[in-house]
Design a protein that fits this description.
Layout: H1 8-25, H2 34-78, E1 82-87, E2 92-95, H3 97-103, H4 107-110, H5 124-137, E3 141-147, E4 155-165, E5 171-180, H6 182-200, E6 204-208, E7 214-217, H7 219-225, H8 229-232, H9 243-259, E8 261-269, E9 274-285, E10 291-300, H10 302-316, H11 326-342, E11 347-354, H12 357-364, H13 366-381, E12 389-392, E13 397-403, H14 408-423, E14 426-427, E15 432-433, E16 437-444, H15 451-467, E17 472-475, H16 478-500, E18 503-512, E19 518-529, E20 533-535, H17 541-547, H18 549-572, E21 578-582, H19 585-589, H20 593-604, E22 610-616, H21 617-622, H22 624-636, E23 640-646, H23 653-658, E24 663-666, H24 668-672, H25 679-692, E25 696-699, H26 705-713, E26 718-719, H27 730-736
Parallel strand pairs: 16-17, 19-21, 21-22, 22-23, 23-24, 24-25, 25-26
Antiparallel strand pairs: 1-2, 1-5, 3-4, 4-5, 6-7, 6-10, 8-9, 9-10, 11-13, 11-16, 12-13, 14-15, 18-19, 18-26, 19-20
Helix pairs in contact: 1-2, 12-13, 12-22, 16-18, 17-18, 18-20
């Protein structure tokens, strides 16, 4: 028996506990002391506590497992992906909410139905093949199907399946997920369409990453650059453009990524040269707005640039000569003047006008005139430096800007060189012609620091050359300015004279020498100036021709002469058989002179008298090339033609024979020298030659009876002069010749 000490009740409790422990552990109780018994009990208590703790942990674990199971169930039901559990024969055992929505049936109602009923018939074979693969291969598999929900349109879904086996390793069913890919399919289709459009578009398209490295391009981009995909993909975009464009792209890249768009004109590498393009870059960003890619569309500007260049050249260059036109000349003049002012230098402006160009243009035709102008431009180019500007500013007007010269003599050298070049004959397609030039020169700032005034001064100097003989050059002077001012004053007064009816026609009679009958009258223009009295044409005709007023004056003369002739017929019942009107070179060379003359005759009529157009020998010969055609056209209107002042000009028998004249008027200088033994044979020759050509011969300037007698003896047909009758107005002519006076 084991000894014990202490409280007998405690001992009894310990012994009872110990006996149980002894039984559990098969311990011999007879060997236990009191202390050993206490230790065993203590161990037992600790063990009991541990068991209780383990039980609590298990309880918590079960609770967590229940919570997790609930969470998984929630995820299963709330997941956007459809989940279904299928029996091996395809019967649906379970389905979540997403699966029900895809198939158009409540999840509970799906259970017990077969999945194939929702598959579009054309895709059933694909579905069965998918199940067969998963079952036989015991592997994961997927396929894409179209399904037909109970309510709603056909949808595209992706089906992913895993096989499920039982404890004996036999196929029990399938775990399947359903993902709606309808929008993805539509997006893919749209992307394919977009890719086709991008591939087919004529615009070059490039895709880059956010570091500007090219990831893709379309065929148009390859066409522009002449490179292949392997040459382009992976390279930075700025390596395919010129240096200035590369600098611009690098500088704008951060702005592009931040703002989303940037566009500029570039020059991108082409097959043979850099191609101008308009590059528009835009970022492609994710949902939060972070850039993922950069897409660029490059529009080829070559055609546009060529069109702009053509428009620029059309707007700024003369198409015939290739020289700058008036517009570009003005810009160059302004630029040159500013540069000269900055560098304290002078600038010379030369205006050049071709002499007798209008005659060439009118007689040989516009094609010959164009040919002449083109050759003039080529010759003038050889006279100037690259730094100078040569321009065509008008029909036959050229301008030259000279810079960087030491003195006026240097400018004169260029002018003389140009005149020498233009003095050589021009071999045109039809004939060879001579064509000099008149050059006016003004110097900035000596003659003016205002460019408009400088141009007027150069123009004034040029017209001074024309007035004093042509084919030369002049520097502007104040004397020229005074003359130009006077010229302008006369022009202004002439315009007023036309407006205020200050012009008047006088008529000098012409008599037949054999019968003494009145042959006709020559109309003579006078200007009844309000302060200077009656002026003859010599005082204003040159101004009228230079200003172009000769056209209006000529029309007035024709109209007035026709009116007076008709009035004579009306009041006298008769009148001069012929009315002679002087025609200037400007009028003869006017391309529309014929139309104006015909219109005037239609308005005033000349059926009851002969209208005779008089022109000097010089005017007729100057227009030899086409005057025959023009004069024949005049004659077709019933007009007769007279060559005035014959013998004073070229005296060309060949020209006289070629032109359709009716009357020859011997210049008064021959008549006044009839007592000179050298003049008499000339008059004899003129009369004999004219009669041989069936021309009427009229002597001008007869002032004595002896002159009249000699002319009659030589067989001259008619005469006029102060001895026979002074010029008189229409009323005086009607009064003096009412009886059809004759000369004895």
């Amino acid at each position: 028996m084991v000894e014990h000490a202490g409280n007998p009740h405690e001992f009894l409790d310990l012994r009872a506990t110990a006996e149980k422990l002894i039984v559990d552990r098969e311990i011999d109780s007879r060997t236990l002391s009191h202390e050993n018994l206490r230790a065993l009990v203590h161990e037992l208590q600790v063990h009991q506590i541990e068991l209780e703790l383990q039980n609590d942990e298990m309880q918590r674990a079960y609770m967590e497992l229940d919570s997790l199971r609930a969470d998984l169930q929630d995820l299963y039901q709330l997941a956007p992906v459809g989940y279904i559990a299928l029996r091996r024969d395809g019967l649906i055992l379970r389905a979540n909410r997403a699966a029900g929505e895809m198939l158009g049936v409540a999840p509970a109602a799906l259970e017990g139905t077969r999945f194939y009923r929702y598959v579009s018939p054309p895709d059933l074979a694909a579905y069965y093949a998918h199940r067969h693969y998963v079952a036989t291969e015991a592997l994961y598999g997927y396929c894409e199907l179209q399904i037909c929900p109970r309510d709603g349109p056909i949808r595209d879904i992706r089906v992913d399946s895993l096989p499920k086996f039982n404890g004996s390793g036999q196929l029990a069913g399938y775990r399947t997920t359903l993902v709606d890919i309808t929008e993805l399919k539509q997006l893919q289709q749209q992307l394919r369409v977009n890719a086709s459009v991008v591939s087919a578009t004529s615009e070059a398209v490039v895709i880059c990453d956010i570091d500007a490295r090219i990831t893709a391009v379309n065929p148009a981009f390859l066409e522009v650059t002449g490179l292949s995909d392997t040459d382009i993909v992976g390279r930075p975009l700025y390596e395919l453009v010129d240096q200035s464009s590369a600098v611009a792209i690098r500088a704008a890249w951060e702005t592009l990524l931040r703002k989303g768009h940037w566009a500029a004109e570039w020059r991108i590498r082409g097959r043979n040269a850099h191609v101008p393009v308009w590059g528009a870059l835009s970022t492609v960003s994710d949902e939060p707005g972070f850039p993922l890619r950069v897409a660029g569309i490059l529009s080829d500007l070559t055609t546009q640039k060529e069109a702009e260049e053509r428009l620029y050249r059309q707007a700024n260059y003369d198409t015939l000569t290739g020289l700058p036109n008036r517009t570009l000349f003005g810009e160059r003049l302004t630029h040159s003047a500013r540069q000269a002012n900055r560098e304290d230098r002078r600038l010379a402006l030369l205006f050049l006008d071709l002499d007798r160009f209008k005659m060439v243009n009118d007689t040989l035709g516009h094609s010959a005139g164009d040919e002449l102008l083109a050759e003039v431009a080529r010759r003038l180019k050889s006279c100037v430096r690259e730094s100078d500007t040569l321009a065509r500013i008008g029909g036959d007007e050229f301008a030259l800007i000279l810079t960087d010269f030491a003195c006026r003599q240097d400018v004169a050298v260029v002018a003389r060189k140009a005149l020498k070049q233009l003095s050589r004959p021009f071999a045109l397609s039809e004939t060879e012609v001579q064509c000099g030039a008149s050059i006016g020169i003004a110097v900035h700032p000596d003659d003016s620091d205002d460019l408009g005034t400088l141009r007027r001064h150069a123009d004034i100097a040029m017209y001074e050359v024309k007035r004093t003989g042509r084919n030369g050059y002049r520097f502007f002077s104040q004397r020229m300015m005074q003359a130009a001012t006077a010229h302008l004053h006369v022009v202004t007064e002439l315009r007023r004279a036309l407006r205020e009816d200050e012009l008047e026609l006088l008529y000098q009679p012409i008599f037949m020498l054999d019968s003494g009958a009145l042959f006709g009258v020559e109309s003579l223009l006078r200007w009844n100036h309000p302060s200077r009295g009656r002026l003859s044409p010599s005082s204003f005709l040159e101004v009228a021709e230079d200003s172009g007023l000769i056209r209006e004056i000529g029309e007035w003369v024709l109209a007035q002469a026709c009116c007076d002739a008709r009035q004579w017929r009306k009041t006298l019942g008769a009148g001069p058989a012929s009315v002679c009107i002087n025609l200037s070179g400007h009028q003869l060379n006017d391309p529309v002179a014929y139309d104006r003359l015909r219109a005037s005759l239609d308005d005033f009529g000349s059926t009851d008298f002969d209208l005779v157009l008089e022109m000097t020998e010089t005017v007729a010969i100057d227009a030899t090339y086409r005057s025959g055609e023009r004069l024949n056209a005049f004659k077709a209107l019933g007009i007769r033609l007279a060559m005035d002042d014959f013998g004073k000009g070229y005296s060309s028998l060949a020209a006289l024979k070629a032109l359709p004249f009716d009357i020859i008027k011997i210049d008064k200088s021959f008549v006044q020298d009839l007592d000179d033994s050298r003049s008499t044979p000339l008059i004899d020759a003129i009369i004999a030659m004219s009669h041989a050509l069936d021309l009427i011969v009229v002597a001008e300037g007869v002032e004595t009876e002896d002159q009249l007698r000699i002319l009659r003896a030589k067989g001259c047909d008619a005469a006029q002069g102060y001895h026979l009758g002074h010029p008189m107005d229409a009323a005086a002519l009607a009064a003096n010749f009412a009886g059809n006076d004759t000369v004895q």
